[in-house]
Design the sequence.
């Protein structure tokens, strides 16, 4: 799948690839009302990655339903809509509207966007906040409810467990990590918002670790993402416990990357004599369990 | 929606001219005919072999030589990415997404047209100047820079119109900024196109507004995707935040909140 915020509505990529060749697209963050987003500058390149502070710019769910949806509803792939909000009521209202669109089989609940000043970040960083919004949306939304988790927490497995208990059908992880860039000559932050979300190849080790930890904590499927730019990267996430993956920032470097990754996964399976890619899910082989407490224990040798 | 088709192509580097210590002109060949490219459009160039360069670099189309089937990029060496690109061996292929963005609009058949460029911002004005000349109009170029060594491609520009220059240190042309050049007092223009440092374009836009002259600018906002998906390169306009990679980089000054 393609990650929210990196693939527009899919239309932007039709010159470069055939959307029918990938499993799905997650259209960018949609809110109940129109949002202008943050002031420019909204991005900074960082080593093997980038920061963004877009701020959920979108024309609102009504505009999406009336104007964008009719144009994209017949794409030959699964279309999920990323839903964001500042209050529980906004999430619920937006989800209800998306539910009326017959060709949208599911939503990705964005409880983790780090750029929204009020609301967004708060929900995804506590088990109570996460559970509250998932429960409320679950009551009204009957189709597939995927919840996108924030990595900017002490223990992402706790949040994952909470959203599973609240009724989520799956989780997607990870969203961007909170970061910062400074222009040393100008002595100013690069982003208008000072901090922003880090994505790209540099976050892959953290994303992999979080997927692996979470896969041992919950039963519902995990959609893994974070720095995937090749079929090998995708396979690593499957081995760590993801059932599917999303590709985000890599789309900016190669707009035709997603079908290449899909093809590469098939080639891997053929090379390893696998009958189905499902055989890879959680198939990581660990010789003996390494004690992870070692990282925080100063006496550990 | 956009009225052009973009392609991901590997173009062969056939020539690199060092214009001085800070600028190079690179010429690329395509084995097939180039897609339709209009002046004002830009290219997302992938730079390989530069560890600090993760994203593509947006570079204006300087010129398309339809006879030799070559694309020209005028590049200022500002960091690792551009320096690595400039050092590409001749014969190597460079991966590009093109064309991207909108284009300069065509002047009316009776317009007196002035193209104002600053520093490396002169790049898109070369192709524009040629197009306007081929339309049958007179073109005047007003190119400014800090110093004579920063004035670029003057010979090329002279092929399509009269060229006036300014330098801040008086090493060439008139001393000062482009908006101080005497041509602005001695000649009346109907349409101005400008590209260069933002303060320069804002001064030109101001001059155009005060004299009721139609004016288009070309912006250079930092961007990630270049194709209208990431929403990083936005400019605040009278229509709200729009992407400079799709609704721009060319903007009529009436649309901007300058």
Sequence:
């Amino acid at each position: 799948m393609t990650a929210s915020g990196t693939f527009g509505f899919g239309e932007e990529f039709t010159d470069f690839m055939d959307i029918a060749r990938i499993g799905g697209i997650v259209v960018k963050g949609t809110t109940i009302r129109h949002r202008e987003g943050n002031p420019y500058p909204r991005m900074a390149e960082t080593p093997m990655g980038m920061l963004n502070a877009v701020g959920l710019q979108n024309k609102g769910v009504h505009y999406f339903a009336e104007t964008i949806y009719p144009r994209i509803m017949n794409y030959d792939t699964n279309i999920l809509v990323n839903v964001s909000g500042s209050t529980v009521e906004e999430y619920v209202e937006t989800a209800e509207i998306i539910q009326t669109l017959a060709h949208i089989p599911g939503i990705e609940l964005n409880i983790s966007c780090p750029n929204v000043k009020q609301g967004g970040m708060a929900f995804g960083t506590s088990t109570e906040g996460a559970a509250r919004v998932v429960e409320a949306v679950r009551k009204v939304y009957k189709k597939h409810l995927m919840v996108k988790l924030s990595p900017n927490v002490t223990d992402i497995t706790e949040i994952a467990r909470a959203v599973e208990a609240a009724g989520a059908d799956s989780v997607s992880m990870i969203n961007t990590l909170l970061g910062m860039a400074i222009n040393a000559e100008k002595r100013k932050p690069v982003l208008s918002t000072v901090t922003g979300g880090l994505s790209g190849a540099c976050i892959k080790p953290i994303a992999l670790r979080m997927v692996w930890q979470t896969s041992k904590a919950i039963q519902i499927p995990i959609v893994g993402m974070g720095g995937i730019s090749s079929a090998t990267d995708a396979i690593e996430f499957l081995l760590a416990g993801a059932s599917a993956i999303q590709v985000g920032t890599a789309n900016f470097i190669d707009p035709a990357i997603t079908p290449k990754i899909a093809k590469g996964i098939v080639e891997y399976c053929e090379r390893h004599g696998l009958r189905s890619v499902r055989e890879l899910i959680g198939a990581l082989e660990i010789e003996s369990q390494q004690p992870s407490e070692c990282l925080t224990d100063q006496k550990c040798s | 929606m956009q009225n052009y088709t973009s392609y991901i192509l590997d173009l062969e580097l056939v020539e690199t001219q060092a214009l001085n210590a800070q600028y190079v002109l690179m010429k690329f060949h395509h084995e097939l005919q180039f897609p339709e490219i209009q002046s004002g459009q830009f290219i997302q160039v992938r730079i390989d072999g530069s560890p600090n360069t993760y994203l593509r670099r947006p570079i204006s189309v300087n010129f398309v030589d339809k006879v030799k089937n070559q694309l020209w990029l005028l590049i200022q060496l500002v960091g690792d990415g551009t320096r690595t690109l400039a050092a590409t061996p001749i014969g190597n292929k460079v991966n590009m997404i093109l064309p991207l963005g909108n284009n300069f609009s065509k002047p009316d058949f009776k317009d007196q047209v002035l193209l104002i460029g600053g520093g490396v911002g002169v790049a898109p004005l070369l192709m524009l100047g040629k197009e306007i000349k081929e339309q049958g109009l007179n073109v005047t170029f007003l190119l400014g820079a800090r110093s004579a060594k920063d004035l670029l491609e003057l010979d090329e520009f002279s092929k399509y119109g009269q060229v006036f220059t300014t330098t801040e240190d008086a090493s060439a042309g008139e001393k000062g900024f482009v908006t101080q050049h005497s041509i602005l007092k001695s000649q009346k223009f109907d349409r101005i196109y400008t590209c260069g440092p933002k303060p320069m374009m804002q001064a030109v836009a101001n001059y155009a507004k005060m004299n009721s002259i139609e004016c288009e600018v070309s912006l250079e906002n930092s961007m990630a995707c270049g194709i209208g998906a990431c929403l990083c390169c936005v400019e605040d306009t009278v229509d709200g935040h729009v992407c400079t990679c799709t609704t721009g980089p060319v903007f009529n000054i009436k649309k901007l909140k300058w």
Observations:
- Residues 114-120 of chain A have pLDDT under 50 and may be disordered.
- Chain A touches chain B through 36 residues (CB under 8 Å).
